[in-house]
Specification:
Elements (H helix, E strand, L loop, with lengths): L2 H9 L4 E9 L4 E8 L16 E3 L4 E9 L2 E8 L2 E4 L3 E4 L13 H13 L2 H8 L3 H18 L8 E10 L3 E8 L4 E7 L3 H11 L1 H4 L4 E4 L3 H10 L4 E4 L1 H25 L3 H8 L2 H5 L7 H13 L1 H19 L1 H16 L4 H12 L1 H10 L4 H16 L6 H12 L11
Parallel strand pairs: 2-5, 8-11, 11-12
Antiparallel strand pairs: 1-2, 3-6, 4-5, 6-7, 8-9, 9-10
Helix pairs in contact: 2-4, 4-17, 5-7, 8-9, 8-12, 8-14, 11-12, 12-13, 13-14, 13-15, 16-17
């Protein structure tokens, strides 16, 4: 094998000619001079179209390549500019790097793979780059991957939710494909305008193909879904409905506790304060002490115990699902309306307003559980992404890790 071909294989350079190799002893760097082959010269760096030359640009430039052994390696080549009919004057494309990058494709793909599969410290130490640089690299890799595939194709059942990524009420709106189990879209913000951008990207024709959408009861989600996907059934997430009941139960507990304190029943108030977890937990998860606490509540305060039973019966509705669940929901609503517990009377009104969406969740068996799992992983990624300069870098990392866009390691794909 000729030495030029050997160097090209070692550096992962395709469609290029290696002209010379120099080792800088002082800086311990290897500089490899290359030039693109004739068939890939004078192409627009953004669209790849063959274009007439414009000028020689700013002369020769370097791209960081993967280290060779113990030394850093760089590719060096001319960087002429071309005049593209669509994009104007741009730097000509080179086959070994993405447009606007300071690193080779092999370096970018390796950094993206390591960012998904290893720790932040491992990426920085192994590649000898700053973490902010990794953020720019993965943003570039994801943009390149999205240009070559359509992540929004074939969506039929999706979940929509928001997740906090930074202090100060900074949120991302995320969309997950229930069938593929993948994150398909995310953007900063949690309002109707942000969600509207997703449906803009989806397009009118594909909006009409969406059949089911799971979400919480946020009004801005329901409004946009009704406007952009009127044929889709909105399924209200059961977890959020049960959480409403848990909040109502806790409100009743606080009212009973405050009444006990007001009437000088200190011992009763202390016992009620310690009963919070016994009232919150599912019956199957209760300890012996907590079961005894519930039995004590049934004896000393009928109102609080009825509130607990109302919460548990509503939870049972979502355990059954289907027609049986629909019938039980109707019975629960009748009970809650006449229970004479204000918190649960108001809850019954709220559930009645969202009844169509709740029944859709019961009959279709769809919840936001998969979306919440993705949100949990995004929260973990926010810790990894600490130091990135923009939410776009965090979104890119999430797309690599949870959206199926992570490239294989060079030479192994």
């Amino acid at each position: 094998m000729r030495s030029a071909r050997l160097w090209a294989r070692l550096l992962g350079v395709e469609q290029a000619v290696v002209e010379r190799v120099c080792l800088d002893q002082d800086e311990q760097t290897l500089v490899v001079s290359v030039r693109p082959r004739k068939g890939v010269r004078r192409r627009c760096g953004r669209c790849g179209r063959r274009c007439p030359g414009f000028d020689q640009g700013e002369g020769r430039r370097r791209w960081r390549a993967l280290d060779l052994g113990l030394v850093r390696a760089y590719l060096e080549a001319e960087a002429p500019r071309v005049c593209c009919p669509e994009h104007g004057v741009v730097v000509a494309a080179v086959p070994w790097a993405r447009h606007g990058a300071g690193h080779t494709r092999a370096f970018d793909d390796t950094a993206a793979w390591l960012a998904v599969h290893t720790s932040k410290q491992a990426v920085r130490q192994l590649l000898r780059v700053a973490w902010a640089t990794v953020g720019r690299i993965i943003t570039r890799v994801v943009a390149d991957a999205e240009a070559s595939r359509d992540r929004l194709a074939g969506l039929r059942r999706i979940g929509i939710d928001e997740v906090s990524y930074k202090k100060g009420h900074r949120y991302l709106t995320v969309v997950v494909d229930h069938d593929a189990g993948r994150l398909v879209w995310a953007a900063p913000g949690h309002d109707a305008t942000t969600l509207g951008r997703f449906f803009d990207a989806l397009g009118q024709a594909r909006c009409h193909q969406v059949q089911l959408i799971s979400a919480d009861a946020a009004p801005w989600i329901a409004t946009v879904v009704a406007e952009r996907c009127p044929q889709a059934r909105l399924c209200l997430d059961p977890f959020h409905v049960v959480k409403w009941a848990t909040d109502a139960l806790d409100q009743v507990r606080r009212e009973v506790w405050n009444a006990a304190r007001k009437h000088g029943q200190g011992a009763l108030a202390r016992e009620l304060k310690g009963a919070r977890y016994a009232l919150w937990k599912n019956p199957g998860d209760l300890t012996a002490h907590q079961r005894a606490k519930l039995a004590w509540i049934a004896q000393v305060n009928d109102r609080l115990y009825r509130a607990y039973l109302l919460k548990e019966e509503l939870r049972l509705v979502f355990t059954l699902k289907g027609v049986r669940a629909t019938v039980l929901l109707q019975a629960w609503l009748a009970w809650a309306r006449r229970c004479r517990i204000p918190a649960f009377v108001e809850l019954a009104k709220a559930i009645a307003r969202h009844r169509a969406d709740i029944q859709a969740a019961l009959t279709e068996g769809l919840s936001n559980g998969r979306v919440e799992a993705v949100n949990t992983k995004i929260r973990l990624l926010t810790r990894v992404a600490f130091g990135f300069k923009s939410p776009e870098a965090l979104i890119a990392l999430a797309m690599l890790s949870l959206g199926g866009l992570c490239p294989p390691l060079p030479g192994r794909g």
